[in-house]
Amino acid sequence: QVQLVESGGGLVQAGGSLRLFCAASGSILSINAMGWYRQAPGKPRELVASITSGGSAVYADSVKGRFTISRGNAKNTLYLQMNSLKPEDTAVYYCKADEVATPRGYTLDYWGKGTLVTVSS
């Protein structure tokens, strides 16, 4: 069974920084892409940033220039460096792994349970 666990969320003042971490564990043969999504109260979940196994990254317009997604040195790990945080960045941040291949012979997408980021003004 594949599990994704996020960490690094917390309370920070506007203009501050946080670094989120995600680790995928289990019988994983490969992961096509990993990404960060967020969901603010009363709003739909949205893509923040994603990165392919080849290192190509995409970002939401709202975070470009402030957030950086990267793969960790350890296999199947992911970071999100968040700088110049704004109150509107407040949300639960979720890690997602796309097209995870396991010994079962098919691929599935997996989600973590999320970590809360609160930015105070």
Describe it.
- This protein is mostly beta strands and 121 residues long.
- Helix content is 0%, strand content 58%.
- The protein contains no helices and eleven strands.
- Strands 2, 4, 5, 6, 9, 10 and 11 form a seven-stranded mixed sheet that branches. Strands 1-3-8-7 form a four-stranded antiparallel sheet, with no helix packed on it.
- The relative contact order is 0.33.
- The model has no long low-confidence stretch (mean pLDDT 96).
How would you briefly describe this protein structure?
With 121 residues, the protein is an all-beta fold. The chain has strands at residues 3-7, 10-13, 18-25, 30-39, 46-52, 57-59, 67-71, 77-82, 91-101, 107-111, 115-120.
Provide keyphrases for this structure.
single chain, 121 residues, mainly beta, seven-stranded mixed beta sheet, four-stranded antiparallel beta sheet, elongated
Calculate Rg over CA atoms: 14 Å
Give, in order, the helices and strands.
EEEEEEEEEEE
Count of distinct strands: 11
Which whole number gives the mean pLDDT? 96
User: Which residues form runs of ≥5 with pLDDT under 50?
Assistant: none
What portion of residues belong to β-strands? Answer: over 45%
Counting DSSP H or I runs of 4 or more residues, the number of helices is: 0
The biggest beta sheet reads: 7 strands, mixed
Helix content: under 10%
